[in-house]
Amino acid sequence: MLKMQRKEEISENLGEVAGRHHKDGIAVGATRITSHQSRPPMIAPSNETKQLNVPQVQLQQQSAAASTPSVPVHEAPEFRSFWKAGAYAANPSMKPALVQGSLEHARVHPKFLHSNATSHKWAFGAIAELLDNAVDEVQNGATFVKVDKVDIMKDNSPALLFQDDGGGMDPESLRKCMSLGYSMKKANKTIGQYGNGFKTSTMRLGADVIVFSRATGASNATQSVGLLSYTFLRKTGQDDVIVPMIDFDISGHWAEPIIYSSQDDWSFNLKTIIEWSPFGSKSELMQQFEDIGPHGTKVIIYNLWMNDEGIYELSFDDDDEDICLRDEDNQGSLKKLQRKTRELRSHISYCIRYSLRAYASMLYLRKFNNFKIILRGKPIQQFNIADELRFRKVISYKPQVSTALNDAMVETTIGFIKEAPALSVCGFNVYHKNRLIRPFWKVTGDGSSKGNGVVGVLEANFIEPTHDKQDFERSTLFVRLESRLRQMIVEYWRGNFHLIGHQLPGSNLQEGGSVQPPVGNAANMQKQPADQHKNGLESNFQEEVHLYQHANVRLNLRNEQSSVQAISGFTDV
After folding, report:
1. What is d(CA 113, CA 85) in angstroms, rounded to the nearest whole number?
2. What superkingdom does the record give (predicted)?
3. Kind plus residue range of the DSSP H or E element containing 248
4. SS3 letters for 109-167?
5. 242 φ, ψ to 5°?
6. What is the pTM of this model?
7. Region 289-302 average pLDDT
8. Cβ(206)–Cβ(162) under 8 Å?
9. How far apart are CA 292 and CA 485, in angstroms?
10. Cα–Cα distance list, 97 to 16, 33, 34, 110 (Å)
11. String of b and e for 250-270 (b: at least 16 CB within 10 Å)?
């Protein structure tokens, strides 16, 4: 009874304070995430502690009158499995009465952080979002992003580290980063555009995240700390998302706190961060800036999610130079598998399912000139499978769009993988603005052998990806592209499968590589014994011939313009 009463008092206190200090925005100190981001005041350098009186219509500091219990960092949400973490009883709203003349604002319940993160079905998709943020910083001078495991000293648990040397975030930018749906990125220059990736990705990987960032402006330099903690919000019974933040001016010889309302408010935010973060003191927090340099950002995700068996979803022990998905890499030793199965599972198309090193190597189409992704201390070597395709062709395709992209021509590189015909890997790696969206997209029917060994690579900027960047919106343009890719693979396969020494049963090769259909009419072919139709290659060959004969009619691509261009003929590498 006493415990319940204490919990209600905490919720009431925090709710009362936040109710006094809001105006359609988020707080500067303990931030409320709502529908609109106000602009914090510009900070002028000075030799004394920064004191700013912020009007109520701007961002406001969390009051120090509220108090939170000291809870160890390891006391994470009751359910450590991500897919069950949203299943907790929400307390009744302790919303305070409105002050006369004030406006109501939309509340964002902490449960939304979890439900919002469920857009990432795949943990590597969430990691890719954070890599995108670092890659977008290349335009601000970033030369690397480090991804690594760090150990939390408070409870000896693993945490996930992302660190880059980009431009960093000033106090205003950090608050926008922590807000929902706010993006300053230019869609034609950067990968991110929805302003939601940081929240969905970090909350998908762990219950809590702390951000350290340094930025240098025209008149001053700042460093900031922000804490987005699902554990804190849940344990203190919040019905609104509150994010403690503190800022420092580092233009002088030492870091001076930037005060927006009072010293007590600033100290309260510091105290909350220390109690709910992996760091036990202010000095430990400040040590995190030592390896950031004059500008850059460090993100630490802790209380990582576990699977249903109570084991961490991410595996750091299987390979010291990699991070693996445990549930995707639990098929046992490759030595115990048949040779063909071993070869298939060693191929990049399979490895990207469980190996972050493999996935990140293909994540970006064009190779970086002065930027590295460093995974657990070792740079990732970028890989484009188009570079090692055999008998490559480039096929140009002009999509029907009514925008500025009307004159855009999409070039698809297509060919056989070097392991063909031994491995039946096939499909298209489809990128959007340099970012891999759909790897090895199989556009032919399941169970069909046509197209085996054929892989293509293209960049389709004329269609829009889904918010998790793991698929495309199923628009009319997408359906047309799918049909065109299906036609490409059928035409390429039909004309070139003999080049890799593959001959279909019953086919006759003529000079020039053209294929003649099996002798006999369709009726005789249908009368073949059933056991012959069980032969996959033979039955699929009949299907392929029929498909090719009627491809132009069935695909209804009368208005699509395409042409096939060889790179000095076929190129065999």
Report:
1. 10
2. Eukaryota
3. strand 245-249
4. CHHHHHHHHCCCCCHHHHHHHHHHHHHHHHHHCCCEEEEEEEEECCCCEEEEEEEECCC
5. -115, 130
6. 0.74
7. 96
8. no
9. 45
10. 9, 20, 18, 21
11. bbeeebbbbbbbeeebbebbb
